[in-house]
Amino acid sequence: MPTTALQRRAALIASALVVVLALGWALWPRGGDPVERGVRVPAQAVVAGTVLKSAECGDQATQPFRPTRISIKVADVDAPVIALGRDANNVPEAPAISALGKTQYAWDDPTQNNRPDDALLPPGAMPGAPTGHVLMNAHTWPDDSALGNKMLDHLEVGGRIILRGKHAELCYKVVRRVVIKASDGSPEYYQQGGPAELAIISCSPPRLGPGDWLNRTIWFAEPLTASDPA
Hints:
By secondary structure, the chain is of the alpha+beta class. Helices cover 14% and strands 28% of the residues. It has 2 helices and 8 strands, in the order αββββαββββ. The longest helix has 25 residues, at 3-27.
């Protein structure tokens, strides 16, 4: 066979060996980052360093407790609750009329009621009690900057309210929103013999003058049950 033919065959064999070695190197399993090997890595379900938050309203209080905080997501409310007693007329006291007071809810603390035998205005209940109304109030301001304004603008029937204590919480669903004349009062607000409910009252328009509002709006809310949607 001529020399040139032998040289061509040798060159072809050498080329084939190079291709085989290259394929073997490419397919040989190696360590390292799977991204470097062209493998798509699925996105992580939980980002490292985060904590999964338990569902709200998943562990309802079954015993009475003292509320210290209230949340109303639909109204962008997350505020402290202060325990107050009654004034000289046996009416639940309200937070101070101040920059701080407009950011607080007042809770009618039954342990501070000096006239618990008053049948017309009986002391309120504690959250988690089996019966009676938990009585709370909040201010409304003419510049729309108080908690009462937020509720008037956003809290409707079906809205959720969460009361929290030191070691307990209770979630409520608004079932009634009523407007009354301030001069008429509301026996229903003070009701203590019926089912457990949360009752929050706040001044509502029209405003007649400094600290003088014609109406009151009351939100009545029932504790959530297992049948309520999450």
